[in-house]
Design brief:
Layout lengths: L11 E6 L8 H17 L1 E6 L1 H4 L6 H17 L8 E4 L5 H11 L3 H5 L2 H8 L6 H4 L1 H11 L4 E3 L5 H18 L7 E3 L34 H9 L17 H14 L3 H6 L6 H27 L2 H30 L10
Parallel strand pairs: 1-2, 2-3, 4-5
Helix pairs in contact: 3-13, 4-8, 4-14, 8-9, 10-13, 11-13
Adenosine-5'-triphosphate binds next to α1.
């Protein structure tokens, strides 16, 4: 049985988000969640709260618990349908840590040291623990666990997907065809939403200052205030040019993504108008877009028992696939299978 990669009937999609802030932000939504929702139409989807990954940032236990439920609720409020897609917590399936260990053991130290997310987070002052260093290997395990064909993520995760592909290929070379090599699913324009207060940095749940982040849970007035204070540039022209006009381009991308109007049409619609008009309209668009989302959130968080039931159901579905993969991998590397894994 070693090395047998089973076929699956429908393509699979897999992705996760960390419960590292009190709400997902607009970057998580536009860069990833929108694509999760789209992919659940055409594929068998697995979407999880990356609570194990969140432990790489030291946080109060009560806060982790609260944020985990909020994150799951936000997946659903954003359009993930738990009847179609498995929605679950990473920590509910011990297989993630098990496969993560195997990934650690086939990763070179130098290879892990080249990961830019680790280097950036350390450079930004995050106190690095070993978990942060091995984050990409746990992420590789998350993806390879579900034989995922497509992984909808933001641009910041491209390098982690590359190492995931390398690890899958390396594993298959050493131990026989066991793991499916996944493809990234990263849409160009929305893949990197920038901080409002510093358009050279990506909007980040754990690193951006409050003023730079649009949280999906923010009150309308707060959203408007943040957008109106967004850093732009000293010119007057409204033009999509992410290299030279990162702040203005970021606002244009946000408006285009939320309204579905193509970027060049959004750009043209500002002919003769100034930055004040741009910020006012973008603020209106964001506020209108989050309104239904927030209403759905309130309902979901009002019924935590139902949310926990959804997470339990998701873990059960995901667990069947996860167990089969870990059994296949453990067997392939030569671990004796315990009786609970059936040999
Ligand atoms: P952290 O800063 O703690 O790493 P994060 O904001 O990057 O948090 P993650 O949970 O790491 O959030 O990422 C969840 C998903 O959101 C990933 O697919 C990631 O690529 C995507 N994402 C995160 N930030 C952005 C952004 N600014 N623009 C587009 N996509 C993003
Ligand atoms: Mg991140």
């Amino acid at each position: 049985m070693a090395g047998m990669l089973p076929p699956h009937a429908r393509p699979r999609s897999l992705s996760g988000m960390q419960p590292t802030s009190d709400s997902l932000h607009l970057g998580n939504y536009l860069g990833a969640l929108v694509n999760w929702v789209e992919l659940q139409e055409s594929s068998e989807a697995f979407y999880f709260v990356a609570d194990l990954h969140a432990l790489t940032v030291p946080t109060d236990p009560e806060v982790v618990r609260r944020r985990t439920r909020v994150t799951a609720a936000q997946f659903i409020a954003g359009g993930v349908d738990p009847a179609r897609s498995a929605v679950f917590c990473q920590s509910h399936l011990p297989q993630h840590a098990e496969l993560g260990w195997v990934m650690n053991c086939i990763t070179a130290f130098g290879e892990a040291s080249r990961m830019t997310q680790f280097k950036d987070k350390v450079a930004k002052g995050q106190n690095a623990n070993v978990g942060l260093f091995t984050y990409p290997m746990l992420m590789a395990a998350d993806i390879l666990m579900y034989d995922a064909d497509r992984v909808p993520v933001g641009e910041d995760q491209r390098q982690h997907l590359e190492i995931t592909r390398d690890l899958a290929q390396r594993f298959n070379q050493r131990f026989g065809e066991t793991l499916r090599v996944p493809e990234p699913y990263i849409l160009k324009e929305t893949a990197k939403i920038m901080e409002l207060s510093d358009p050279a940095s990506k909007m980040s749940g754990s690193n951006s200052p409050e003023a730079g982040l649009i949280l999906l849970s923010d009150e309308p007035a707060r959203i408007a205030k943040k957008i109106k204070s967004a850093v732009t540039d000293a010119e007057r022209e409204i033009r999509y040019d992410p290299e030279h006009k990162a702040g203005v381009s970021n606002l244009l991308v946000i408006e285009s993504a939320l309204t579905g109007v193509p970027l060049d049409s959004v750009e043209k619609s500002y002919d003769g108008l100034g930055y004040g008009a741009l910020k006012t309209r973008v603020a209106d668009v964001v506020v209108e877009s989050v309104r239904p989302f927030q209403e759905r959130m309130a309902e979901l968080l009002g019924d935590p028992a139902e949310l926990d039931r959804i997470l339990a159901g998701g873990a059960e579905r995901a667990g069947e696939v996860a167990e089969a993969t870990v059994t296949r991998v453990f067997d392939a590397v030569g671990l004796l299978l315990p009786s609970r894994r059936g040999s």
